[in-house]
Each structure stands twice: as C-alpha cells, then as structure tokens.
Amino acid sequence: MKARVVVTLKNGVLDPQGKAIEGALKSLGVEGVASVRQGKVFDVEVAGADAAAAKAQLTAACEKLLANTVIENYQIDL
Amino acid sequence: MKAAVIVFPGSNREGDMALALEQATGQKPAMLWHADHELPSGTDLVVLPGGFSYGDYLRCGAIAGRAAIMDAVRAHAARGGLVLGVCNGFQILCESGLLPGVLMRNANLRFICKMQHLKVERNDTAFTRQYAKGQVIEVAIAHGEGNYEADDATIQRIEGEGLVAFRYCDANGVLGGAANPNGSRNDIAGIYSGKRNVLGLMPHPENLIDPLVGGIDGRALFESLAKAA
C-alpha cells in the first residue's frame, strides 16, 4: 500500500527557508505569491493491506522520527 | 573522571574533544561507536561531539538521537550521570529528548564560523565551577542550525528554573542585537537539563584550550568536569 506523509512547520514557527524561497520567487517576477512555507514529503510503501494498521504504524513513525513535534505537524494520506 | 566520547557517522570534532578531555583529566576518553549498546562501566561523563551526524539528513541530530547507544546515554543521564553535547551534540540531545526545544536554521540563513563572546550564567554546576558567575568568555562557533527555539511555556520554565547555561553577548557582556549571531530565543547559547547534569551548547569550548589556536577560554569547562568526579 502506498502512503504519503507530509510534514510541515507549525503556525508561528519562523521558516527562514520558506522566506528565502518567497523572496526568490518575487525576484523572479512570479506574481501573486503572498507567502511560502517549506515542508517535507515522505512516500512510504507499507506492507499489508490493512489501512487502519498502516495508519497506526505511520503515526508511530511520525511521532518517533519523521516529525519533530516541538515544531512540526504531520499529515498521513493513505 | 572517566569520560566517553560517542562517535556517529559524520561526527568530526571527536578528536578535538578527546584532546580537551585528556588535557584536563590526564586520561584519554573511551571512544564509543553509535551502534554500541553499553557505556564502559564507571563512566562519569558522556560527550556527544560536533559534526554532521548522518549528513544532517531529515533534521540535524534526528537520526543520531535515535541511535542504539542513546538508550544507554538516557539511562546514564537518568541516574544523574554527566552528559555534554556540543554543536551537533546539542542538536542530538534536543532530538533525543534529553533537553527541551530545537535548534533551527540560523535566522540569517548562513553558516556562521567565527569567534563569539558568551556570558556564563551560573558557576554552581559540574560544568562551570572554574568560571566566575557572569564571566564573559570568547570561544568559537561554527554552525548553520543553532537558532534555539522552544514554545513560550518551555522558555518560561527554562528561565524560571535557571537552566540557561550560556548566552551570546558582546565583548562587554551586553546581550541582544548584533551580539546574537543566529536568532536564538533570549540569546540562548546553551542549556541544562532540570537536574543540571546534562549540558548542550552550540559553541565549541574544546577548540579554545591552547594559546596557539587563539585562546584558552574553553579550558575551564573541562577543568570543572575533571574536578566533578
């Protein structure tokens, strides 16, 4: 089963990389960009076909390693 | 004082750290590999050196913070043993849960490598007895992710319990403004755990132990540790 985990910075956490990308887009003349926040995407191949079990395993993966929950949120898409 | 230095793939300051420890204690520290499961018996101090463990993949210190040896380091800290993490070692301590908060990208987005003044916040800990309270020291910093952040409640607790070890300052000990190189909350350069037996800091005291390389302001930290056990 294919799963996608998206990790993003929590609201209010300063994201200097996102700010730099935002500045670069503006200097390239890309219009209409109000702000940019950078995050991470993990494509995970989960063994088995039990969606509930996969969700539990991926939640553990996020809590233990993929996200630093001090500053990051995560979202699991199955 | 029996010290052990943990080496991760990508550590690069372990040699400097071993020299500083040997100079102060008269004994070479044990060098342990990240995949080891136990500390040598009688270890008083565990040191996580600087570098780029696991190439800073995922987040700085994230993978090293979950290495096999870290269970032994956590157990050592829980029984009151001393733990020192410098630079990447500080990032690993935060990622492993031994210290609160996180080290984010420097506010100016640049890797900063320069000499920096620090204020010693207290001198009643195993790490700082050979300094004076409020002393201004000059040591090296070399990091891209040293911008200390934590939520407001955590910052309040750290400040309230006196857990800030060092703050960035200028040569006169004045905090704030350009004296803060990386945007850290409250100019925090290093913090202690609640029992003050774990210290993490971004600057490199191990590089300031010989007049030949620019100063000896880092020596007192290792001399404090040598006398602590």
Short description:
The complex is a heterodimer of chains A (78) and B (229). Chain A is of the alpha+beta class.
Indicate the structural class of chain B. alpha/beta
The string of secondary-structure elements of chain A, in order, is EHEHE
Count of strand segments of chain A: 3
Poorly predicted tracts of residues of chain B: none
Q: What's the main sheet of chain A like?
A: 3 strands, antiparallel
In angstroms, what separates the terminal alpha carbons of chain B? Answer: 5 Å
Question: If helices are DSSP runs of H or I spanning 4 or more residues, what is the number of helices of chain A?
Answer: 2
- Radius of gyration of chain A, rounded? 16 Å
Shape assignment of chain A: elongated
CATH class of chain B: Alpha Beta
Note the main sheet of chain B.
Answer: 9 strands, mixed
The CATH class of chain A = Alpha Beta
Helix percent of chain A reads: 25-40%
How much of the residues of chain B is beta strand, in percent? 15-25%
Structural class of chain A: alpha+beta
